[in-house]
Amino acid sequence: MTKKLTALGKGEGGRINSIEAGRYATKRLYEMGLNTGALVKIIKNDSGPIIISLNGNKVALGRGLAQKVILEV
Amino acid sequence: MKNGKIALVGNPNSGKTSFFNALTGSNQHVGNWPGVTVEKKEGKFIYKDKEYDVVDLPGIYSLGAFSEDEVVARDYILTGDPDVIINIIDAGNIERNLYLTTQLLEMKKRLVIALNMVDEAEKRKIKFDLGELSKRLGAPVIPTVAHKGIGVEEIVEAAINAIDDKTSIENPLIYSGVVKHHIEHMEEILKNNNLPYPIEWTAIKIVEGDLNILKKLEGVNVDKKIIEDIKEYYKYHTSDSFELEIVDSRYAFAHKVAEYSVIRPLEEVITLTDKIDKILTNKYLGVPAFAIIMLIVFQLTFAIGEKLLGSFAAGSIEGLGRLLEIFLIKIKAPGWLVSFIIDGVINGVGAIIEFVPLITVLYLLLGFLEDSGYMARAAYVWDDLMRRFGLQGKAFISMIIGFGCNVPGIMSTRTMDSKKDRMITMLITPFMSCGAKLPIYSVFIAAFFSKHGGLVLFSLYAFGIFVALIMAKLLNKTLFKGDSSYFIMELPPYRIPTATNVLRNMWDNVSGFIKKAGTIIFLVIIIMWMLAVLPTSVEPYSQYSILGTIGTFLAPIFRPAGFGTWQESVALFAGIPAKEAVVGTLGMLYAGQYIEEGVILVNAIRQHFTPLTALSYMIMVLLYTPCAATLGIVAKETRSTKWPLIMAIYTFAIGWFVAVIVYQIGSLLGFS
């Protein structure tokens, strides 16, 4: 099943299935390690940007952008 | 004799600067390169009697062509022709860091890999197979902890050996069938030409849809036919370019390398960082935590810098002044010389030097914050609020850096993706009160508000943020419409700042301050002094002097704000070349006026100001036209004279307006 990154709660995670953003944003996400297939875990998702963990490294991601990241859960 | 050029390349926060400092030691100097928009640091070191150049390139995630810092780093790697690149990789974040490495491999550059911060990775129970890593990357890999100096010697050795290594370098990346086909096709078009860059890399870039490379090729002397062919290729392929596929191949390679050479624990180790972040990034506690941290910074700055050390420094300067005066009178120096040295140099420039302890403490604390990893958290907790004002969290980092000095604050906007965000941030950074304004507040606080020094200081800085946000909103509604760009930022692990880094940062700033006092501020004070004692027919330092005449002419502008004497007006203008000159000028003019013994600046200010006018003066200083260096950097960054001019005028207007409101409302409420 696929879900938007914003739809996941703390502690949940999955692999990135696709990124539905423009060329520029997609590339930036890729460069920060959010490429298809990358394993993502939610550290914090309440208010403000979402904090995720990529291999134990934290990345903060604005909600607008996080909405475009689709995970396979 | 030059024996080689070494470039340092790595992600932001991978520890490049620590490396640069460890390599170059005390020999380092920071050099601005002409024509580039991103600061590179240049240095040299001597190893076994041979001298080597080191270039520290800005931290980047990719060698793409989106933001300017990337283009510049890429251009340097391609055309600066370093003999070897030390690629610094954060051991705790190896896949993402290897992404940049794959791009260096595509360029077929000779690499030495520094697997940095292995100590932190160890704490997280991450292990490495160095032999495997080295084999897969085709480059030596050395574990390091740069800020502690561990592994630096070995890196130097490996880099120097690599300079003499003449074996050919292979690109180990594997591209998917279609992409590979396109790259080969492009290589066919490009071959037999005098290309300025490696052919395979050029082909990859074209297939990747990188328009920048076409411009580069047009700039050099290549066959016109090729340009036509590339344009023809772009016509059919830019929309469905293979950009993301190529990025995927790079990541596939990085993942593969990591898979074979990195062993991670099954369960992530919960680090101290995670625990601290629970509080500092908390939904409710994040912003108050920020306020408390900043309050502590300003309380400490004031307590240590002013109360503890400040009076000592002031006493020393005063004592020195008196000794000098006795000496000058004894040797029967001419009156004008005594006046110049005592009023101009001691009371003018000396008044600034007195604040060295104060700004030392401020830079020490700000450096500590920068090094700790907290800045990224501040950006995080402020992102939400910043969005309401049409900006994003990243802008907040530039603003905090502006607290130290506006110039690096404005330069730090380079990493912003959106031009709109960048312009607004630049335009509001001057409201972030810098270290050079600290001496001004300090004398006024000492004169009227000394009981609550830290709190008053904190309130001024907070008020600066407030005005900055309001302006951001206004600019967003008028000149720069549109949504703010998305926010994406790494939250690095907290680190205990190393003494060397913090002290070096502090020393850079403090020595800069002292140097400025000896050069530009000295010059401003000399000019002010001459204008104040000329013409010789009138009483020096009086309103009949040239300076007095100018001041008297300007003074009415400030009368609605409550502080319209001629001295106070000219001091504000003297502050435009450099803010410290405000205090210097006031010190000189008041000292010249009060000939009797023991009148120090604070006392003079008590006589000339009331608490209310002191407040409106401080607010004017907080908000009005930034220093010449700041305007200069805005001109450079925007490549225009229009923006610095707009900045100079609009900040002046806002400073004046707010100072007037504060004074008028204060008067109505019965304050004086």
Overview of the structural elements:
- The complex is a heterodimer of chains A (73) and B (672).
- Chain A has 73 residues and is an alpha+beta fold.
- Chain A has a single domain (2-72), classed as SH3 type barrels (Roll), CATH 2.30.30.
- Chain A has 2 helices and 6 strands.
- In chain A, strands 1-6-2-3-4-5 form a 6-stranded antiparallel beta sheet.
- The radius of gyration of chain A is 11 Å and the shape is globular.
- The longest helix of chain B has 27 residues, at 642-668.
- In chain B, helix 18 runs parallel beside helix 20 (419-428), helix 20 (419-428) packs antiparallel against helix 22 and helix 21 (438-448) packs across helix 28.
- Chain B is elongated.
- Chain B has 672 residues and is an alpha/beta fold.
- Chain B starts with a strand and ends with a helix.
- Among the domains of chain B are: 2-164, P-loop containing nucleotide triphosphate hydrolases (Rossmann fold, 3-Layer(aba) Sandwich), CATH 3.40.50; 177-263, Helix Hairpins.
- The A-B interface holds A 23-33, 35-38, 43-44, 46-49, 51, 53-62, 64-65 and B 61-62, 64, 66, 92-96, 99, 124, 126, 243-244, 247-248, 251, 255, 264, 268-269, 273-274, 277, 281, 283, 286, 376, 379-381, 383-384, 392-393, 417, 486-492.
Topology of helices and strands:
The complex is a heterodimer of chains A (73) and B (672).
Chain A: E1 2-4, E2 13-19, H1 23-31, E3 39-44, E4 50-54, E5 57-61, H2 63-66, E6 69-72
Antiparallel strand pairs in A: 1-6, 2-3, 2-6, 3-4, 4-5
Chain B: E1 2-10, H1 16-24, E2 41-47, E3 50-56, H2 68-80, E4 84-90, H3 94-106, E5 111-116, H4 118-123, E6 127-128, H5 130-137, E7 141-144, H6 152-164, H7 177-190, H8 199-207, H9 211-219, H10 224-237, H11 243-261, E8 262-263, H12 272-280, H13 286-308, H14 310-330, H15 335-353, H16 356-372, H17 374-388, H18 393-404, H19 406-411, H20 419-428, H21 438-448, H22 453-477, E9 488-491, H23 499-518, H24 520-533, H25 546-558, H26 566-574, H27 580-593, H28 601-608, H29 611-623, H30 628-638, H31 642-668
Parallel strand pairs in B: 1-3, 1-4, 4-5, 5-7
Antiparallel strand pairs in B: 2-3, 6-8
Helix pairs in contact in B: 3-11, 5-11, 7-8, 13-16, 13-22, 14-15, 15-24, 15-27, 16-23, 17-18, 18-20, 20-22, 21-28, 21-29, 22-29, 23-24, 24-27, 25-26, 26-27, 29-31, 30-31
